[in-house]
Design brief:
about 55 residues, little secondary structure, binds zinc ion
Length: about 55
Amino acid sequence: MAGPFYCLTCGAKEEDCKCERYCCICQNDYNVRLCADGNYYCRECREACEYEAQS
Ligand SMILES: [Zn+2]
Ligand SMILES: [Zn+2]
C-alpha cells in the first residue's frame, strides 16, 4: 500500500493540499495525483514513470 504522501510545496497530505494541482512533467491538470516524491503527476505520466498514487 502506497502513501500517505505529502505535497512538496505545502507539506500537506493530498486531501488537505490546497495547491493548484497540475502534472509537474506535462502541466496537464486532468486526473492529477500526488506521488511519492511530493509532486503531482497526471495519469499518463504516472504510468510512463511507474509512479503510484497513494491508495
Ligand atoms: Zn500542496
Ligand atoms: Zn503529465
